[in-house]
Amino acid sequence: xxxxxxxxxxxxxxxxxxxxxxxxxxxxxxxxxxxxxxxxxxxxxxxxxxxxxxxxxxxxxxxxxxxxxxxxxxxxxxxxxxxxxxxxxxxxxxxxxxxxxxxxxxxxxxxxxxxxxxxxxxx
Length: 123
Fold this sequence. Notes:
mainly alpha; 5 helices
């Protein structure tokens, strides 16, 4: 399970880096300022969530696999990636590479979620 935590955390880190570079590209897109600002805002928010998932999996993996909060973080990760894969075909161009990457990341989060074992509630 530890190796799966590391692989999933590194995949999240790769998505973080992708979104950082995407933010740099958005700054140069020929969009009205309002839309560019909205795109940047969504991108920054998404990047921060993915950065949190990266931190949780790579630095606090034992807690992720042993607490209800960790299970919720894994569920969040799965929902983010699976819904992003679906959105690719609903609103966007339907790029199979993006869809496949998101499905793999979502499935990794689901597999980790099934491995969560809460031994004692923390209050």
